[in-house]
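Protocol step 4 of 5: obtain the predicted structure for the target chain.
Materials: sequence only (see below). No template structures provided, no constraints applied. The aim of this step is simply to have a reference model before the mutagenesis design in step 5. Sequence pasted as it appears in the construct record:
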Amino acid sequence: MIARIAGAVTRGTLVALVVAMPSLLLAGYMSDTSEMVVLIAILAGVLTFAEYNTDFPSFIEFRDAPPVNRIRFIALFVMFSSLSLAAKHQFEPTAITGLVHHIGGLIGRFADFPFSPVRLVLLLLPEGTAEQTINSVRIAAGVTYTTAVVSVLIFLFSVRVLGWPISSGAFNVWVNLPLFDPTTGGDVVHRLQRDGRINIIVGFLLPFIFPALIKIASEIVDPISLDSPLTVIWCLSAWAFLPASMVMRGIAISRISDLIREKRRRVYASAESMQAA
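Step 4 output (structure tokens):
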């Protein structure tokens, strides 16, 4: 029990620190840092602690099936930390912020090609936008999208090469998929396959769809201003992180459906061999 509580406290603290990281690193340079970020960080930490401190799952999926949530956490940490340091470079240049800003600029220019998600984000900026704002948005979009793609590839490697989730031990569907009800909606395998494909397709398309939806909405309401570094960090991290999470969830669910189908096949083959004997 002590180990479980310690693990839950550690996870909750790390999640709270990551959520508050942009505001903490830019606290002395931004006037729009509010207590709302602190409240969100505390809430995220408390919810994470409550989820990992109980035997009964609630809403966090793949709780006991690493490295799904670990990859998500590291991806979000990389997004927030790199974008915060790159934004801090314009206020307090140091060797570290300069290195992160330079690498982010290279990634942004590499990812900014016609019809790419990064180019679509840049097209949202109104005419006459300052060059500094364009560069900051390009860096943020390039870094977050590249991080999201790399995180998906790492998880795909763990599934295809390392044999997730079998390599982590027995997989409990109820604990790791608390929002999935296996008793309704027809065959479990077909439902998992359908949900997995939907998550992969939607997650792949969202980085392209979000800019188009924002462009359409800007004709009706005032668009979100990307002049603030904190706004850029939060918006573009969400733009890349949420689709990547959906793709990883789709890959994981598809893998689980394959395992259930293989187990059924082995059970049926064993039953037929016993009958034949």
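Step 4 remarks: The two ends are 48 Å apart (CA to CA). The chain has a mean pLDDT of 87.
Proceed to step 5.
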